[in-house]
Write a structure and sequence with these properties.
Layout lengths: L1 E21 L2 E21 L4 E12 L3 H4 L3 E5 L2 E4 L7 E12 L3 E11 L2 E7 L5 E7 L2 E14 L5 E18 L2 E20 L3 E10 L2 E3 L2 E3 L2 E12 L4 E8 L8 E5 L4 E5 L6 E8 L14 H6 L7
Parallel strand pairs: 5-9
Antiparallel strand pairs: 1-2, 2-3, 3-6, 4-5, 6-7, 7-10, 8-9, 10-11, 11-12, 12-13, 13-16, 14-15, 15-18, 16-17, 17-20, 18-19
Length: about 300
């Protein structure tokens, strides 16, 4: 069986904003964008258990007001941040070839090409202070493999979901008359474990690991984290109590190095990433469990966030 899904979306976005940095200083941003965003999916069923699909879609990431504002935000005597009034919206062309087996396993070849990719830049001003501001890169692309496995059960009442990626990212930007570049092969792994316990209890133990990642002029060091939670249901599984702990070992703290034609440096984000919480929810109607059957499901979730003001 062969299936074609074709869509075309038109967006006309316009905004005007005036910001007063001081009583006698005002800055006005006025932009208008009109663009088409096609979406094409071709699906072929090899047999009852296997499917092949090809997908192409176009997305947009518009700069927000802070990224466009030229006003300076002082972090310390040596580090300033400001926006870029000349910043253009970023457009991404994404292509995916997916093999799906028994609605539980998939292998995906992905390619993404970003036009006017938005990324932070690092430069020095005349007083030798670091100026951080967003800029449009000359080139940004990613190609790689993604593997998904759902509903793996080594033993009874133990469910595992795996998500593995091997991506090659390439960024290029113009600095003076020279073209600078940042390229890196990035492995990553996500594991979700759910163990069913007596008395309608279940234990979640989840973790992720990302290898060193390139993002524009910056490189984010390898990063990992572990989360856990205990779930208990009541009232015929309609009421759910969930007690969770995120980033148990406080390891989700990115360490970033950056390099430009003017300077090199590094810093680490030391926010408190570890947290403990309680969630109580009540379900009015029983829904259907999602799985890998709905190709492109993540893309549909992004539709509601595609306009970024």
């Amino acid at each position: 069986a062969f299936q074609i899904d074709l869509g075309l979306r038109f967006e006309d976005a316009a905004f005007k904003s005036t910001t007063a940095h001081k009583p006698d200083t005002a800055f006005t941003v006025q932009r208008s964008y009109s663009n088409f965003f096609p979406n094409l999916t071709l699906t072929y069923a090899l047999d009852a258990a296997q499917k092949l699909s090809v997908n192409y879609h176009r997305r947009v990431n518009r700069p927000n007001f802070k990224d466009l504002s030229p006003f300076v935000e002082v972090n310390d005597p040596y580090l300033y941040e400001k926006g870029n009034p000349a910043l253009k919206p970023e457009f991404a062309n994404n292509m995916e070839l997916t093999w799906l087996f028994k609605n539980s396993y998939s292998l995906q070849l992905r390619y993404s090409q970003r036009q006017n990719a938005i990324s932070k830049s690092y430069n020095l001003d005349e007083q030798r202070r670091t100026i951080v501001m967003p800029m449009n890169l000359e080139h940004a692309s990613t190609v790689g493999l993604r593997f998904n496995a759902a509903n793996i059960s080594p033993v009874k009442k133990w469910n595992i979901q795996l998500n593995g990626n091997l991506m090659y990212s390439s960024f290029e930007w113009l600095a003076g008359n020279d073209m600078q570049q940042n390229r890196r092969l990035v492995p990553s792994l996500q594991v979700q474990n759910t163990i069913s316990l007596p008395f309608k209890l279940s234990l979640d133990l989840n973790g992720f690991w990302n290898g060193a990642t390139a993002e524009g002029q910056a490189t984010i060091a390898s990063l990992w984290s572990m989360n856990t939670g205990v779930r208990k249901t009541f009232l015929q599984d309609k009421l759910t109590l969930y007690i969770y702990g995120n980033d148990l070992f406080r390891t989700n703290r990115p360490q970033i190095t950056f390099s430009s034609d003017a300077m090199e440096g590094k810093y680490r984000e030391l926010y408190d990433s570890r947290s403990v919480g309680i969630n109580l929810s009540y379900r009015l109607h029983r829904g259907k469990k999602d799985n890998l059957k709905s190709e492109g499901g993540n893309d549909r979730l992004e539709e509601g966030n595609r306009i970024n003001y």
